[in-house]
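In line with agreed milestones, work has continued on tokenised descriptions of protein folds. One protein thus recorded appears below exactly as we store it:

>
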Amino acid sequence: MNKVVIVTGASRGIGREIAKKLAIKGYIVVANYNKSENQIKELQKELLERNVNIDIFKADISKRSEAKELVKYVLEKYNKIDILINNAGISQIKEFTQITDEDWNNMINVNLHNKKGCIINMSSIWGQIGASCESHYSVSKAGIDAMTKSLAKELGPSNIRVNSIAPGIIDTEMNKHLSLEELEYIKEEIPLQRIGKVNDIEKCVEWLIEDDYITGQIISINGGWSI
């Protein structure tokens, strides 16, 4: 069986494109969504037209019971979880900071026995350098980075790698509210003088999945904005 991937927050933006790209490459993708049912079904339909299938599952992963149901569904259907891509936003840090050791053991039990696995957390540049007027968001992302390093140490002996990707500004729906003037101002602050693309994140995700020796790292993809 091909590798099984859970992508949380897969209905829009970076999560959507990651789920799409991995499905096209042949991974078994379970795309998690919460409210954006129309968008996730549009993605499913788009891929089916290309003879590519994704599995979709509705769950609000800020709620522990629903997060457990997602994992239970995948394990019962596919008997394993090879890759977990945590992309669902700041509510996710609430869920994972509350999870007990027993919960973690249940979630990754199959991978522990198989001595393999890959977890990729989506963080942000603001978790590293902070953002004015976004202290709560910055703190949540810094928490994800700290959790990434802690879990990398804890799960390393079981050959489960845990890394975090910290994007700068990426051309997604989340940033559509920015005016052209604001975007130009931001570009001037970025050494590469351009806004990032989802493909920049996708390539890093694929690299982290295929690699077998990178763990505990916060990968900055921001065009040098954080220098």
Notes: Strands lie at 4-7, 28-33, 55-58, 83-86, 117-122, 160-167, 218-221. The longest strand covers residues 160-167.
